[in-house]
Amino acid sequence: MSSLNADQRTRDLADLADRGVVDVLVVGGGITGAGVALDAASRGLRTALVEKRDLAFGTSRWSSKLVHGGLRYLASGDVGIAYESALERSILMRRTAPHLVRPLPQLVPLVSGVAARQAVLTGIGFLAGDLLRRSARTPSAVLPAPRRVPAAQVRRMVPAIRQDRLRGALLSWDGQLTDDARLVVGVARTAAAHGAQVLTRCAAEQVTGDGAVLRDERTGETTRIRARAVINAAGVWAGEVAPGLRLRPSRGTHLVVDDSAFGGLDAGLTVPVPGTTNRYVFALPAGYGRAYVGLTDEEQTGPVPDVPAATTEEVRFLLRTINSALARPIRDADVLATFSGLRPLLDGGDGDSADLSRSHAVRTDDAGIVSVVGGKLTTYRTMAEDAVDATGLPARPCRTRDLPLLGAASPRQLSTVDAPLPLVARYGTEAPAVVATAGGDERLLEPIEGLGITPAELHYAVRHEGALDVEDLLDRRTRIGLVAADRERARPAAERALHEAPTGR
Ligand SMILES: Cc1cc2nc3c(=O)[nH]c(=O)nc-3n(C[C@H](O)[C@H](O)[C@H](O)COP(=O)(O)OP(=O)(O)OC[C@H]3O[C@@H](n4cnc5c(N)ncnc54)[C@H](O)[C@@H]3O)c2cc1C
Fold first, then answer.
1. pLDDT by residue (tens digit) across 378-397?
2. I want to staple 32 with a disulfide (CB 3.0 to 4.6 A). Which of 233, 292, 327, 339 is the partner?
3. Which neighbouring-strand residues pair with 258?
């Protein structure tokens, strides 16, 4: 087991200050930075990752949590990116993180608002997506082929679907993460298991191609360290780290609703935006009785906020579109919370923006800083490989394609893990270690009322997953904090976990 916690942080900071030099300094602890740290450390490079706030503090926790098979890229003719996405989905679901990615059925209902032409186009798209699945060697036992399903089956999967003139639905499958922030923590801990030093609340300042000043955000102390290569993975903040880089972020918003609004939700529900042929709004099952409704795409102007916020117009647009497929509309009052993330798009200059949410870019500036921006959660592994290759450091070849994350195992092996199923779904083979954290105290294994998460998980997060305060616990190691009332209910348990876990905070 690899443990991130307050003691490890103190030790690693002191060690880094003593040595004063690493091979690779990674700036940013989102999925990109965590992936780079794993890639570099597993190639035998002495690696330090510094994150100003917490793992997954930025965009990486605000995604739709889908592991895409590349269908949307096919629609825009980007066959190369589409294939890369399908391949990475296959690697995540079959080798590196089958414990964190599950197959998600997705329905496009054929109702009166969906024209026959639109249905045919969607069906052709699904078949093309299936070709990608097969070319990436993802067996149908992992992701079944798409098909048309009758109205009765649609009603079973989404009971609140509008019934009038429901002709059935097109059903396809994609990957869905248990949680995006948990993927980041899993990758970062696996990097630590390969020797990377992972330091949160540690900002990189005065960054150059051969080092940076590190500021301990808890004490204000600074130390300069040298590095043979510096990789900037600071997402929408990448332009602050490497000033030549200009980003033009775009905001994507989701709503959080009770899944009873759909009569329960066993599948993703995809609804075409009226008047368009390639825009959709979807509802996704989010676990613990919740569903997410997304997604918008709005230019974010002005300074980059720490935590972006949804606008009233975005909420209205999402409700209006999803309600077009429901028998009883979801109202404003049913929206429990919203969350928004910023896509790190590179500004192409001359007014047009290069949409790097579709692909990723690795740029080395005059100072020698290697920046890696754009891409997707799904493709973090190839982004990391390209960034480490770009440093030109002599090292072993990339090996992350075959490197399971901590807790990973095949579904068959996972079915034999001796722990409660909800824990196996979140921790894989590490679930028994979460149970052990309870030290035989059964109360710690009882879910916090109505929230599904157990206090043992909060203790585990403090001891092994680098949670340093209540926000880390409620906003990133779990997602309880998304809904304000849930947050208040869980706060005492989070405070107890921080107080009781012996980590020398
Ligand atoms: C709304 C939305 C939905 C999406 N849905 C999906 C999806 O379903 N599937 C998918 O594959 N992709 C999806 N994406 C894309 C994906 O989420 C992003 O591409 C990815 O999370 C970007 O990760 P990152 O690590 O590059 O950036 P971030 O996650 O933002 O990480 C950057 C980190 O750098 C840190 N940092 C900044 N400055 C410094 C500094 N000076 N020193 C140290 N640390 C610093 C920040 O605190 C932050 O934690 C979505 C994106 C959005 C916006």
1. 999 999 999 999 999 999 99
2. 233
3. 290
